Amino acid sequence: MNGPLVAGVELGGTKMVVLRARGREIVEQVTIPTTSPTETLGAGVALLSRWHAQEPFAALGIASFGPLRLDQSAPDFGHMLPTPKHGWTGADIYGVLSAALPCPAAIDTDVNGAALAEARWGAGAEGDAPSDCLCYLTIGTGLGGGFALNDRPLHGAMHPELGHILIRRAPGDAFAGACPFHGDCIEGLVSGPALAARFGVAGDQIAPDDPRWDDVAHDIAQLVGTILLTTAARQVLIGGGVGMGRADLLDRVRAKVVAQLGGYLPFVDAASVATIVRTPALGDQAGPLGAVALAMDMINRQ
Predict the structure, then answer these.
(1) Is there a contact between 252 and 214 (Cβ–Cβ < 8 Å)?
(2) Which cofactors are named for this entry (predicted)?
(3) DSSP 8-state code for residue 170
(4) N vs C: which end of the chain shows fewer Cβ within 10 Å?
């Protein structure tokens, strides 16, 4: 394996993956449960420090769940903004982790990182040239979305917050939604906790032919259509426990995307939709490799 040794942290709502990689090849990774910021980040710092003592890192990439403050001029840069994740609002993700290593460090959302990795090494790299606009969605504990635009993660005033978009509901769907901020935003309709509230049991315990999946597929298709219409993304990749765990749901979503768009986008039809709306090519490694991509970019900027 060639290339400098880099460190990566993918911080999720239920687990944190800490890794070291040479180039894009992950040589070791450890999973740590996400509990409190002090306990979780402290365990990450201890591991990174031990690895760095064995062989120094050239850079650190942090791909974290959000919302995050990514404005480097802000006094709370790298901190967690108000979040439903208990105890994590205000946590200094970047400060704690970057202080552990005397090397350049970068932070972005986990979904922006995953989009970047997929654009370079996954679904976006399967054609003749890397995708110039790719969206990565994760549907699990929450719903997040990120973009790789011309080989750079997308953010401005903030980062994309696709999970809190309000979509047009399916006729007759009376589910109130489960988001503590907005009720029936898309996260409040189709995330793992939302499915449990909607169905009364976890989504993986519901039969594939249960008619209530039609409303879920409708809602996800509404989000996908919104993304395609507003960003002209070449691909929308759907990952996470809900996204990658039900191939039957993805098929329903594709059919509804085509139907809802009504032929307006000429590049989306029954023949092409399976290549546009699909699972990540990197599978569950898209997130960890996103942290690697962020670290490698820090080296390239030096």
Answers:
(1) yes
(2) Mg(2+)
(3) P
(4) C
Handedness of CA 67, 72, 73, 77 (dihedral sign): positive
Q: How far apart are CA 241 and CA 271, in angstroms?
A: 26
pLDDT tens track for 268-281: 999 999 999 999 99
Return the SS3 of 21.
strand
Q: What confidence tens digit (pLDDT) does each residue in 116-147 have?
A: 999 999 999 987 666 899 999 999 888 999 99
- Between the CA of residue 262 and those of 47, 269, 270, what are the distances in Å? 52, 9, 11
Determine the topology of domain 5-109+284-301 in CATH.
Nucleotidyltransferase; domain 5 (3.30.420)
CA distance 29 to 8: 9
Q: With 0-12 CB in 10 A as exposed, 13-18 as middle and 19+ as buried, what is 4?
A: middle
Separation of alpha carbons 200 and 66, rounded Å:
27
* pTM of the entire predicted model: 0.93
Residue appearing with tokens 């070791």: 28
Please state which CATH number belongs to domain 123-281: 3.30.420.40
How far from 207 is each of 17, 85, 162, 202, 210, CA to CA, in Å? 32, 29, 28, 11, 5
